[in-house]
Amino acid sequence: MNNSKGDRLLLLINKILLGVIILVVVSPLLYVLLSSFLQPSILLTKGFSFNASDWTLEGYRRILSDGSIMRGFFNSILYSTAFTIVTVTVSILAGYTLSADGLVGRKIFMIFFLITMFFNGGLIPTYLVVRDLGMLNTIWAIILPNAISVWFIILSRTYFKAIPNELKEAARIDGASEFKIFLKIVLPLAKPIIFVIALYAFIGQWNAYFDAMIYLEDRDLYPLQLILRSILIQNEVQPGMISDQLAMAELQRVSEMIKYSSIVLSSLPLLIMYPFFQKYFEKGVMVGSLK
């Protein structure tokens, strides 16, 4: 296809803008990744160096040898996985139910759900509910309070409404129950929206630390993000990472090294997940948002 001069100019401008956006997004990631392998003193004095003697894996060795960070890493995997399973299950079941045309009071239920998107009880009432339910300092305080997302329910409901009713009617004629229709027909067609909700839920819970800071007291239950908060914001290094004889300069050096290495380590699960979810993610977002 022959493009006019105006079209070629527009394509060139688009390519330049996309290149700038990619550069803006990728540059901080590359900076953190390269900084995690460099000696902090070299990074501060010389900047990036490609001299092999200036590179080190000490930050990663200290993280892998430190019990609190690795325990937080596995806690985050546990919390995020359990949270994702609960959120996907509730969202898919609620969305499918609300998509049924014959559901009595469907509009009332939707209004009830929508109100919760704009108004909530606040931090103190929520804390009191969690406390009275006996969930303080337990895994359930991290998983259950935010497991139901109205946005995910609406997204799944919109997706299910796009599935032709003829498929379900044909199954009913063959004698299939509603549960069998959902399990054998609807659910296999819902893979895109399931993976979209799973990805969003996992990322949201993986990056969360506020609920853990409020509801957890035992440091053994802390997720990785809460431990990283102590390192990045409060500039704390766990006693097991360094010996008492190190000077303050060494403490700061180790702290800087651990900061960058911890950020890279905490990003690995998301970077590993996304390529497998990408094809479902694109399809699910487009169908769930446009239909």
UniProtKB/TrEMBL annotation:
The keyword Cell membrane applies. It comes from the Bacteria. CDD domains: TM_PBP2. Residues 73-269 form the ABC transmembrane type-1 domain. GO terms for cellular component: plasma membrane. The keyword Cell membrane applies. It is found in: Cell membrane. This is Sugar ABC transporter permease.
